[in-house]
Amino acid sequence: MKKITLVIENESIFHSQYLKQLIKKFKVYNSYKINVCIYFGSSVSDINFKIILSCLKFNFNQFIKGTKFFLVNFFKRMINNELNIKQICKNNNIPYKKIFNNEDLINCINIFNTEYIINASSLIFSKDVFQKNIIMINKHSGQIPKYMGSYPLFWSFYNSEDKFFITINFIELAIDEGEVIYEKAFSTNNISLINCYFRSFIYSTYVITNLLRKPILTSVKKKIKQSSMKYRKPNQKDVDNFFKKKLSFF
What we know:
The protein is an alpha/beta fold. The chain has one domain: Rossmann fold (3-Layer(aba) Sandwich), CATH 3.40.50.12230. It has 9 helices and 9 strands. It has helices at residues 14-29, 45-58, 60-80, 85-91, 102-112, 127-130, 152-158, 193-212, 236-244, and strands at 2-9, 32-39, 96-99, 116-119, 135-140, 148-149, 163-170, 180-187, 230-231. The protein has a 7-stranded mixed beta sheet, sandwiched between helices. A two-stranded parallel ribbon has the order 6-9. Strand 1 (2-9), helix 1 (14-29) and strand 2 form a beta-alpha-beta unit. The longest helix is centred in the first third of the chain and has 21 residues, at 60-80. The model has no long low-confidence stretch (mean pLDDT 90).
């Protein structure tokens, strides 16, 4: 039985749906022992505030849609806890731990005797984590090496790409430079950024569970130039420019 640690953000919209789908699919095969590390070292609340502020200033229709989106998800969480990650773990008898840094992650690896890590968080793994004899796989919502770094979906929309990518890659010390196991492109025509995020998270659960059923994971090393850009978290000016371009977030 493969022992798998899922590392996810403490975020109640995309990561909760991602977790529910992964648990559901792993249960079908009944050959995995799952535990969850919930990463509390990052916050999405500040970027959400930037988004709503920019909508209000530059695109009132998007402001209405965004407000509705956040309120609906807030009340879902308040009324029945269906988007609470800890509650999802409890409902499915999945052991979980809160983590804030790499030291916490290493403790979890030791406690759970982890063989595989599947990472969908923003935690940057330290050298000490790499000293563990485990297979580490990353879910990335962008094409490598074109969209390495943070918020790849945001930046692909910002740059008016006609496609967005889902990439599954091995984790290396150099961020997003691990060998690519799987990638698939999707059209961005007539779809909002939020819906791309949902598609990215949900589709990746099918890919990850199917990949882990294989005895050997084949991968390809992408050619990455030293000058290759690694994107950062968007600031307020970036988000303002997104809505000035009349791009569809919601």
